[in-house]
């Protein structure tokens, strides 16, 4: 266990740097364990527990440099939050599923649990990094310490974890932390952001270009293909928001809450998109703007921007088709509860 994630040593600061995938210490669990459904994100169907045909003998992806053009965009946006190396190197002590096929099924099941634990650690660590959430820090520390101890448990213990209950408990803490953080933003009623939470709201393809979404509660919101160019998302809570093909050119996500790398990797943006400090700019983002759409920073769209902290919910959903997903696949960026597929190097 990394020192800064050692509950015995105390937990301080933002430890999320330790919750990143290290493919060189993993046996490509994400390329084997989940099922894939052929879709815009995956070029093939693949049953759970079966190695992807692109996986080579050295646990590396043979098409890593061409994932997007070959139809494996889902692989390019997956993040295991470091669960892969934890399972391979800690839980199974460096034993791989090819050398020990009898334990392969168990290892894949453990990976699914571990990924959730690491994901929750990411969010808890972010909440702990927010000074405004100080009234909750004791509870957040406790939840993180207990979760970290689980990540070091044996396989049987991990498989016995009540994952939905743990997720729910953490989720409630995160919601409270979100309220505290967003309450400090300017413009909120009594310095408290509106409590309206359109969790899971459907804003597919919505025109939110240039919108003032500071401190907005966008948890679980479907923003697939939405136009958020130039939008101000500072302090917005994007926990579980689906940002596939969301246009973030010029948007400001500085201080946005609970954004993960998979969400950015699934979206579109450019060098002018302001990111939360713990995240990196996706390599596929370029400075090239879509010439078919006016830049909201230079051509504001009348009436496109809701007020601070409010989110317009369309009376009817756009008809955009939703990509197909496998129910057993952990690959959807629609929710941090189940982000996406592998990025095997
Ligand atoms: S990264 Fe994707 S395409 Fe490459 S081996 Fe893994 S699952 Fe297959």
UniProtKB/TrEMBL annotation:
Name of the protein: Pentapeptide repeat
Biased composition (Low complexity): 314-332
SUPFAM superfamilies xref list: Pentapeptide repeat-like
Pfam families: Pentapeptide
Protein origin, superkingdom: Bacteria
Positions of region (Disordered): 273-345
